[in-house]
Specification:
alpha+beta, 3 strands, Arc Repressor Mutant, subunit A, 3-stranded antiparallel beta sheet, single chain
């Protein structure tokens, strides 16, 4: 597997997990409010605890969140390293597109 294919394989689950609006809202709350228990994550939403748990498990499987048991509660936190890696991948793609567009422009202008 090439290096580029390996990066795609590692980041694809991240983007798939973030493709759901509820998961994006969960990530946004964890980003703005810090680590939270499921009880807090369900406050102010129309989503059940069971649904939040399923979404958190999907985010966890993608490496975007992790939980720690504190007393009787499970506290969920963002995995910032996974977000940073996905951001670097997007930057790389952006740079490749910029270079391709420059080549296309040069080609069109030289014709």
């Amino acid at each position: 597997m090439s290096k580029a294919a390996s990066k795609r394989a590692k980041t694809a689950p991240v983007f798939a997990a973030l493709g759901d609006e509820t998961r994006l809202l969960i990530v946004a709350r964890l980003c703005h409010e810090g680590p939270l228990a499921i009880v807090r994550l369900t406050e102010g939403s129309n989503v059940s605890r069971q649904a939040i748990t399923k979404h958190l498990n999907a985010l966890s499987k993608a490496g975007l969140v992790r939980s720690e048991r504190t007393g009787r509660e499970r506290i969920w936190k963002l995995e910032v390293n996974q977000f940073a890696q996905a951001g670097r991948y997007l930057e790389q793609i952006s740079q490749e597109w910029d270079e391709a567009l420059l080549r296309l422009r040069a080609f069109v202008e030289n014709d």
